# Entry
Amino acid sequence: MMSPTARLVVRRLNQRNLATWYENSKDVAAKIVPDFMDMSAQALAPFFTSTKSFATEASFETRPFKLHKLEEGPKTSVTVTRDEALKYYKQMLTIRRIETASGNLYKEKIIRGFCHLYSGQEACAVGMKAAMKPADAIISAYRIHGWTYLMGVPPLGVLAELTGRKSGCARGKGGSMHMYAPHFFGGNGIVGAQVPLGVGVAFASKYRGDDNVCFALYGDGAANQGQIFEVYNMAKLWNVPCIFVCENNGYGMGTSAERAAASTTYYTRGDYVPGLWVDGMDILAVREASRFAIEYCTSGKGPLVMETATYRYSGHSMSDPGTSYRTRDEIQEVRQNRDPIASFKEKIISTDLASADELKAIDAEVKKEVDEATRKAKSDSEIPMEELPADIYAAPLEEEIRNVAPWEPLRHKRIGSAVNLN
Amino acid sequence: MAALSTSKNMLKVTTKLLSRRCFSTGRALAGQQMTVRDALNSALDEEMERDDRVFILGEEVAMYDGAYKVSRGLWKKYGDKRVIDTPITEMGFAGIAVGAAMNGLRPVCEFMTFNFSMQAIDQVINSAGKTFYMSAGEVNVPIVFRGPNGAAAGVAAQHSQCFGAWYSHCPGLKVISPFSSEDARGLLKAAIRDPDPVVFLENELLYGTPFEMSDEALSKDFVLPIGKAKIERPGQHLTLVSHSKAVDTCLEAAKLLASEGVECEVINLRSLRPLDMDTVLKSVSKTHRLITVEQGWPQSGIGAEICARVMESEVFFQLDAPAVRVTGADVPMPYTKSLEVAAIPLPPDVVRVAKKLLGLK
# Structure
């Protein structure tokens, strides 16, 4: 019966890359006695050549989860395979790049109106998606560019939607806040409204008898909305498999959580709905918590609240510099010490799941893809004028739609596939 | 006694009471009557039977048999899964209903009265009404919001508002305002089958009113087209256009005017969005005079919209007098009985206005 420490040592010794590992090792969860490793590295180094080979999996310890009315919570010992790690890394990086590109497009005035960036919160979305089954659903508010990508829309579909062009996932008609994909119900502009919708989505799953859940996301600001408490009640009463996710990034627009909420322990705000708190900057912790939540809901225990403690680097939206209500030092501190991508990168390299070069190659690949999508999103054309009156109704009853002036009616058209038509 | 939930059962009881011989020959027959309440009930029942995805939620719809008994017997027949009592949380349960519709079910969401829909109006308009357009035609929302609308009797200001103008203002919604039992049955069935969000504005005072029903109107697949008006009474001197309870006011006014030799054409709009202007314009071309009659407030109301559209059409030149509106008085509804009566147009009010338009004393 090997201790975790011994297991780790054996795994390391199985690699032929001991010297490199030792040099790079900044194992965040190091439980290994430094002296011992020093000793073994020196003793064994001559026996190994430096051919490249990677670990197939690595384990880590997460920060403890906080529980509310739960006997037990998610495991703090988490394991990730090399393939998974590379996938999550790429996903988080892609989201970060899409958001950076969006910010730049907004500054160039090519994106108009609202643009709410997810930079800093990537681990939340990627972690949840990693745990979701293919037909599990998710609904959120307006900070959703990353989710749209994760739910199957390529970067061009997201960026062109932001620039309002025809390659956008809603042909440019929705914009930043109204993107949709299979099992992803937007993209909702009215703070809090998405949460009852999410309970409804999960209700439909239960009604049909499939074992799918719905993640209904909202922020710390929205967490005070009355309608959320209304649906905590109905979800618990009717045992609806809905996971309420409060993405607590510390601020509701310019109002810090402490200035808006009498109780900032959002994972307990469901009261009779059990809840858990998770470090939202740790993608593996979020994944583990999400797995736990899905298991909980699909085993018929009803809803759960999950609070992910995270942070957004940008302001509330692009019109908010994000510095009038918090210090630059605070933002810098998080970027330097708790960035979800950088810390995951460190984990990957330190445990030899991949090399720094390999990750650099992924960086380059993602940059290329997003740059290309950005270029196309800028040069793509808008939908033609005939689509102004398109898809107002799935079953239009009138062909003529009133225009700005009388005597020159528009003509309704049907273009989209109306998933609930029949 | 078993729940009287099918139209045929209702028919047996009513016809026994009203006539000795009761057999049908396929056409509308004297004696086949049904109240609006039973018409709605039978429509709900049949649509729930036809499509598993249809379910009802709202306050008191299940165990109480419906605050106004519209859903009587349905919980007993279909059970907890399909007829669901909600807590008194309109915004929450309307949102749940919309989400369920987005994910493929066919909810019928009852507001105990449409006054309470204001608590949930964001979900009706922003979530249900606009999602199809915002998603460029991907996510349609096949939901029906139904319940009593407008003035009742003695329920005072907060419980008496007509929301026809509010909801029919919004593209993305379809808005129905039935009058008769046939309207109620055919249009509710059509609304439930419709893949878009429908606001179905009933009237509490009409629930107990019996109307003639043809065999066709009693058949399981009887649907009426949304957006098409009905000419309740043909006439050549004056067009009266209205919806819901006000249709009754117009029919009564038409009787009074008929005794003075004025023949009114009474149009029952049936739907407020789309508005059947073809029927209205055709009628005005014939009669050259138009009065719109509604119980809702005058400013930015249904009548205002109809008059504006007439102004903008060729039929304007057919008018022999300005098109005018008869509406509820521009006051919150008082409780005082005599004042309440004065706040809503009555047949003599319509007659008075008609005579002025016609230049009669």
